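One record is kept unedited as follows:
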Amino acid sequence: MKQQSNELDLSLFFSSIYRFFYKNSRLLLAFILLGAILGFVYNTISKPYYKSTAYATSALSYFETEEVDYKSNKIILDQQAMVDIINEISRLVDEDEMDVVARKLNLSLEVTNSIRYIEAEELFFVDGENIQQKRDKFQIVLEVYNNDYIRDIEKGIEYFVNNNSYIQKYYQLHLDQSNQLVDRISREIDDLKRVRDQAGEKSAGDYSEIKMSNQHSQTDNQIINLFIKQQQIAKYTLLLKPIEFFEKFAVAEKPANRVWIRIGVMTAIFFMLGIIVGLIRFYNTRIKAEK
């Protein structure tokens, strides 16, 4: 009996919903059409904008900690700090502080007023153990009203990052320490060569042995080991930057097409308004009938 009662209640519930939509079908249809029309009109009068995405990397986290992954022996480049720094510009744009944005990016107010939206986002991947990991790169999403200014804004972002006093302090420290280490290794190599020349023959522990494997090669020669280390430091000095674009902003030629999204949103909003109006009419009719 209880199961039959529950089935009856559900049947009455769905029947009531059907009757409500059936009785108010014209009203709801009118609201849907009104929402679609207003969405189309809003899209027509809205200022068109261009959307572009750039991909970059930053070595700021390495400058701060010189962290290396113990498994892969690779440099760890966590992009969260740089994402937060660039999103300071995003916050200023949202708050319409365009004069401040112009100063920080070293751009004219005309260029910064063209910025509709800007935001940096971290990138992730799923590893072999199905765990989400951070990539050593991030993306910047940019929306502008004038696509002629996309390249200027890109240079402005580089200027903003490269002239940040906190970043410059760590970057300069990285360069100074790297140059000192390269110089010290060069002197050590010269000393080892001098000892070898004076000995006239290889001494114990100063021999060459190269071990090959599928992944890498190893050598036990002291001079070659130091030279490899020197080359590695030189590579890091050249490649590790406060910010480096490896995929620049594309200069979009066509404005972003948002017509269907805007029509859909406005239609959904007016559909909900139609339901509310229908419910108000239903309860007003019920109240009048009870009087």
The chain has two domains: 47-164+242-257, 166-238. The first helix runs from residue 2 to 23. Residues 204-210 have pLDDT under 50 and may be disordered.
